[in-house]
Structures are given as structure tokens and as C-alpha cells.
């Protein structure tokens, strides 16, 4: 027995996702093995995660996000920006929207440079030695380093992600350096368990940490996949009106034939 799944492939600064129009709820979210298979870069389509667009009576649409390991996950900033562009492509929205995401309601706007997404407010920032830990829709550990030259993001990220504190639930790990007046950012993502070309919630977390240190309310960060901009307003100890902005691209669309070789698929 076989079946076809129609999908779209998007990326936001190299952070790539499979997007599926699931307004008819025909894609079953409990099929973790299928999601893992689709995200596999050798045996499937290949992506950092899979996103379902679904109907809701609370907003224009609902976002369901899964990591490439097949598990339902927390908020994804770049994924949020991609699904906004997807909703525009499907004719669900015009140039502005409100949608329901894993961490609650978000507003967003299509701009000449891509998509600008409003993120949740952040007020709790924990300092861990010289490092920082905060939640921007997903948990992030931010570490300042001297340089990214010859720096191994994967091995250094694993040391933190799998330490005694984070081993069970995991955390994303961001490394940031300032080189030639540019803010350079790399990210090790839980659920992907590898370095990704970009991470939206991680870019926001890093920009907030830098804002604590340099007082700036707007940061431009260079990831492996491109440039993301973050702006916010600091009110007391809280960061509000946080906007993540950057390019989004539909890479391709197609059908994948799923062969039920096992009960999992």
C-alpha cells in the first residue's frame, strides 16, 4: 500500500522546513516515524523540521512544528516566518496576519526583505557564569566566544546540550562572536542534534543577551545562512515588542510517495 503527500519546501536564512497544508487534517501528527522519515536528508525530503498549517477559530491559521527527530516541539522563529509566507502563497492572508503557534499568538507582516515576526516578550534571563540562559519560545543557552575561526559548533554545543542540567529535556546552544564589526552567530539545535544554518529563536535570544551587554535595541546578526535583524524595546527588566525579520524563500514543491514498508509509516 502506498500514498502520496503533497508538500512545499521553504527556508529562512538556510533553516529549512517541509510545509504541509493540513487544513483537512489528513496528516496525522502522532506519526513520528513518518515525520522523521520525511525530514531525513538521505531517505526522505530533507529538512531541519516539518510544519503543518491547520485551521483554528482563534486566528488566521495554526502552526504545528516538529523537529527532524519527529517529535512535536516548541516555537521556531524561522519556521514561523516561513509559514507566514506559505499562508500568503495559499491565499489565506494578505500582508499581515495573526496566527497560533506552539508558544501562543503571534503577529507578522510580509516586508520587502521577507517576513517580520513578532516574538513573545522575554523577562527572565539567567546568568550562568559568563553565559546566559533564556526562553524565547524555545530554550536557549547563549555563550560568547572570541572567534568562530576553527570553532566546532557541534562538539562544543553537545557538551552543553548533554550536560547534567540539560541532558533530559535538552536546550539549543548559541555561540556568538564579534569579528570585523560583525556579529557572528552559530547554533546547535536540540531535536536536530546538529548545527543548523540559522535559528530564529536563537537569534532573538542572542540579540537580547547582546542588548543586555551593549544597550542597543536593534541588532543585525550574521548566521551561516544569511542575515537576520532583531529589534525590541527594553522596559525595566523586560524585553518587549521583539521583532525578528529576514528573508524567506519557497525552494520547491512536490509529491512524495510513501511506501508502507512498516507499521510505523
From TrEMBL:
GO terms for cellular component: cytosol. Keywords: Amino-acid biosynthesis, Cytoplasm, Isomerase, Lysine biosynthesis. It is an enzyme of class 5 (isomerase). The record marks 140, 189 as: Could be important to modulate the pK values of the two catalytic cysteine residues. Signal peptide: none annotated. Pathway: Amino-acid biosynthesis; L-lysine biosynthesis via DAP pathway; DL-2,6-diaminopimelate from LL-2,6-diaminopimelate: step 1/1. Transmembrane segments: none annotated. It is found in: Cytoplasm. Belongs to the diaminopimelate epimerase family. Catalyzes the stereoinversion of LL-2,6-diaminopimelate (L,L-DAP) to meso-diaminopimelate (meso-DAP), a precursor of L-lysine and an essential component of the bacterial peptidoglycan. Homodimer. This is Diaminopimelate epimerase. The gene is dapF.
